[in-house]
Amino acid sequence: MTDALDRGWYLEDFEVGQTLTTMGRTVTEADLVNFVNFGGIFEELFINAEFARKDSLFKGRVVPGLLILVFAEGLYVQSGLTHHARAYLGLDQLRFVAPVVCGDTIYLRVTVTSVRPSISRPDTGVLSLVHSVVNQENVEVVSYVTNRLILRRSA
């Protein structure tokens, strides 16, 4: 049996320009309710279906952008590319581009923008990625950039 750390990508497996699209995930009413309750985000937009339908800009149960960010990171982890990750160094340029409503299906497109050895840790390197979350109609809904510390195979 292969050990979990024998799977996944090392720094050397990533190349600038590579793009991966993850599997999809449909956002449900239960997801919205659980997230709002867990986070205490009791905004009328999220907890009042009548208000959301009649008085909001979105005319439906819009989903908090931070929930979509969490789902996107989960989709990235499920892709299997993180088994050799050692640290999440940062998230930049977060933009909520378009609304997600209950029933939408989201996918994550990840594009490698930089791969470089770490200066302070020779056994690792820094991987920079652009993340684009798209819905079932291929409309971008969230975008952001991450930097991650990844093990090098040569270590």
Commentary on this structure:
By secondary structure, the protein is of the alpha+beta class. It has a single domain (4-27, 62-151), classed as Thiol Ester Dehydrase, Chain A (Roll). Helix content is 23%, strand content 35%. It is built from 4 helices and 6 strands; from the N terminus they run ββααααββββ. The chain has helices at residues 29-39, 44-47, 49-54, 65-78, and strands spanning 19-21, 25-26, 85-96, 105-117, 124-135, 140-151. Strands 1, 2, 3, 4, 5 and 6 form a 6-stranded antiparallel β-sheet that branches. Strand 5 (124-135) and strand 6 (140-151) form a beta hairpin. It is elongated and about 60 Å long. The two termini are 23 Å apart. Mean pLDDT is 91; it is low at 1-5.
* Beta strands, count: 6
Helix content: 10-25%
Level-2 CATH architecture: Roll
Largest sheet: 6 strands, antiparallel
Count the helices. How many? 4
Strand content: 25-35%
Number of domains: 1
Average pLDDT, to the nearest integer? Answer: 91
Order of helices and strands: EEHHHHEEEE
CATH topology: Thiol Ester Dehydrase, Chain A
